[in-house]
Amino acid sequence: MKTPTNLKIILLVLCLSVALQPTFAQKKRKKSKKPKSSKVLLTTYIDNYKTIAMAEMKRTNIPASITLAQGILESNHGNSYLAKKGKNHFGIKCHRSWRGQRVYAWDDEKRRSCFRKYPSSYASFIDHSNFLINNQRYDELLLLPNTNYEEWAKGLKKAGYATDPNYAKQLVSIIEKYDLRAYDVLLASNLCDEEIRAVPFTYNGIKTLLLGCDVEPETLVRTYGIQLKKLLKYNNLASNDTIVSGQFVFLEKTKRKGPKGIEQHRVNEGETMEDIARLYGIRLKSLYRRNKMKQGMKPAVGETVSLRKKARKKPLLASEVIGPTEMEENVETIVTEEKTKAREEAAKEQEAEKTVAKANLFDTRHLLADLGTTIKRKSSKPVTVTELSTPMPAVSSKARYNKKTSERKTRTVPKKVKVKKPKVKVAKKKVVKKKKVKSKKVKTALAKKGKTRAALKKEARAKRKRAKANKKKGKKYQTAIIYLVKKGDTLGGIAKKHGISLRSLKKANKIKSHLIYPEQPLIVPQKR
Fold first, then answer.
1. Terminus of the chain with fewer CB atoms < 10 Å: N or C?
2. pLDDT at 271 over 60
3. Is the distance from CB of 197 to CB of 215 less than 8 angstroms?
4. DSSP at 83
5. Of 140, 146, 154, 145, which is closest to residue 184 (Cα–Cα)?
6. Cα–Cα distance list, 238 to 122, 229, 241, 296 (Å)
7. How many CA atoms lie within 13 A of 104 on its CB side?
């Protein structure tokens, strides 16, 4: 009975081995056929990103040749570490205003620098043009014509986009070698080629299109299968409107906030709140509320519009800014008002002077009537004043008229005579310097210790310094080093390795939890 059971077991094992053989072979084949990382060719890079470069030229006046040349140079035509991991094609660093994701990579500096990380490569191109527009140091570039790529290259170097002294020459050589200026001329001539088509990508978490030609909304409804009402609502368009090239078209509902990392937008000439809402994929109502504005209001050129947080103050409106013609009119009105005010004040002063003169004349008449003199008018006939019963003697100029007694009193002021005081010589007292006598206590202390007074002073100073050093807290560590976290490292292990406490390591890096991630830079303080 044992033999058939053993045979059954052996047959089962053989069947299983035969059945499992193809699965193992498939696994081996899969492992062997892993795709290797292939480099992006320069021609494919230009074909992939020429449409978005031309659309950004239409929107922001930045030449398409310059954006493509910068992308080729900065990202090594899409093969650099930043372009692959962070989808950053232009080497834009984080800066203080950036609130999005980050990538750390080596740069010209000694430490690893912080660079911006994007959800897509198209978002990197859009942020590049926004970065140039919103920074004041690039304002002179925007005034240049979009066909003069040589001046744009020199202006970027002059404004400090890159530290390389040959940066402008490298851009010009790339543009001329691969004939990138053809895209500037093609877009400037408003020609529409079959190759320039809609570029789909996600921006601010919304499915968007970037058009290279003027398109009607109905054509997009047919191709992308979206309702016409929703398309017009999402993009704040009317049924008769045409979508212009270089404009974003949103296929989904827009957000209440702008994209992460872009906090504010500086208003350019001719921009309205609708244009800003389309540019960042924000609802128009929420953008007005966020900036404390009513619908229909237009911000002035150069003002900042907040995209993610509530603004503290309402931006200056275009209606509040005074133009040159309004200034001239205001100046004329101000001058006329000032002239009328000056005339009125002069008339009031004249009237006040007349009243004072009349009052003075009335007083002098009574005074002269008492003195028995006459007052002459402009006419030839003199007017006689009633004479007094008794003639009055001549009075000097220093005489006073007393109204109570009606008598005149002369005042004689005696002259002051300066009396010279005799100088008295005072004998100077001789100052006798007292000799410092040491007290008995000090003498005994010095005698006991067998030290001089200078030695005791030095000891006292040393004690004071020690006391001050002990009082100071938080200065146990004078220097620190930066440690990059590796796989398997913990905070306790790093602290033990460098001979410091876990509490001091957390305090130096402002960490509350024990969580750390690889390639994280940590500040490790060193003991004295």
1. N
2. yes
3. no
4. I
5. 146
6. 27, 9, 5, 17
7. 8
